[in-house]
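FORM 7B: Structural annotation worksheet

SECTION A. Query
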Amino acid sequence: MRHDPIDVFYTYKSEFSSDNEPLSKIKGNEFDITLNIDRPYPPVLRRPAYPPSPRSREALEKHTQELIQLGVLRKIGHNLEVEVTTPVIISWHNDKSRMVGDFGALNTYKVPDRYPIPRIQETLTQLSKVKYITSMDWLKGFHQNFFDTQSQKRT
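SECTION B. Predicted structure
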């Protein structure tokens, strides 16, 4: 039984991005970052930004503004509590830029997830019940994760 793709998109429109809502949350998956150390945190978790080149600074500003407009990032003031600072760099490939966070230090102190990647058998079991499988590039090929309120101070 074949369905018109337009009908499928219309029926499940809340599952797809739109001009009004270019990103949507992954249902039922807010990630949490639990650290295995107590405060005050070591200086390695409060690193200053890497000094970018003028070209990278311009790209960084562009990416930051775009992600703020999409609701992925938010501006914070100097007086707001931020537990961890994560430097970002601009990665260049074929004259195109990507903003990349350096979470190496944070990962050192994070309590590991027991199963950070879905088990293949569970995924296959869930896929056996689906009617449609699609593949889409979502915001430049990156997967956007949302963090719970407490963990946002650590990202």
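SECTION C. Observations
The chain has one domain: 5-154. The chain has four helices and four strands.

SECTION D. Sign-off
Analyst initials: ____
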